[in-house]
Amino acid sequence: VEYAQLNYSHVIVPAIVDKAQDLVPLAEKIVADPEAAGEEFGRHEDAGKPYSYAVTATGTVEEGEFGEVALAVDGMPDGVTVGVAIPPLGSSTALRDAGTDLTFGSFTNQTEYQNVAIELNKLAAAEVYADLKLADHIGQQITVTGALTWSSKTGGAVSHVTIIPVAIEVQS
Fold first, then answer.
1. CA angle, 60 then 66 then 67, to 5°
2. What is the mean pLDDT of residues 135-150?
3. Interatomic CA distance for residues 145 and 19, integer angstroms
4. Quick one: average pLDDT of 61-79?
5. Which of 84, 96, 73 has the alpha carbon at shortest distance from 27?
6. How many of the other CB atoms lie within 10 Å of CB of 124?
7. How far does the chain reach from its first CA to its final CA, in angstroms?
8. Which of 97, 144, 160, 163 could potentially form a cystine with 52 if both were Cys, beta carbons 3.0 to 4.6 Å apart?
9. What is the dihedral of CA 54, 57, 72, 100, to 10 degrees?
10. Within 13 Å, how many C-alpha atoms sit on residue 31's CB side?
11. CA dist 94 to 33, 81, 131, 135, Å?
């Protein structure tokens, strides 16, 4: 938790922003060759674990599933939808994994390692959503920068990705 609090604003956010790839061409590369795209643009702790990516995407906010709003992004590969996480951001490890070089071995145990991810999500929620409620912007364009983990909840092909935001800009 202390690591997250000490490093969120001046290490994690700048790393995500600096490494952020445009989601559409990145997603096309991931679908075409997941391992090559992961090696070039992503980060994972171990072979066999999913890659996390720093991304940026522009799209139209739509109503979404629990815990997120949908983001209609033109040009996404067929069958892949996009969401933007809304508070609480839960236990996603995307910010930790895409925004740091931390490994499990950096901590005493799995609980401490996971707590860093949860605390980063809390800090992101507090900063990004301090004066913003995405549900109030249905139908509007936004640009979101953040992190996602490219993995399937069912073990098959990835059909949905959720961006954990570090910055959101509402287009006027």
1. 75
2. 97
3. 10
4. 95
5. 73
6. 28
7. 36
8. 97
9. 20
10. 16
11. 20, 17, 23, 22
Q: Which of 119, 92, 93 is nearest to 5 (CA)?
A: 119
Neighbours of 132 (CB within 10 A): 14
Query: Tokens for 164?
Result: 């954990």
* Residue 82 φ then ψ, to 5°: -125, 140
The predicted model scores a pTM of: 0.96
| Residue 141, number of CB atoms within 10 A of its CB | 15
Helix segments in the chain, DSSP class H = 2-7, 13-19, 23-32, 34-41, 94-99, 110-128
Note whether 53 and 147 are within 8 A (CB): yes
Confidence (pLDDT) at 72: 98
Q: Do 64 and 49 form a contact (C-beta atoms < 8 A)? A: no
- Dig out the tokens for 88 from the structure: 């609480």
Q: Tokens 């790839």 map to which residue?
A: 21
What Rg, from alpha-carbon coordinates, does the chain have? Answer: 15
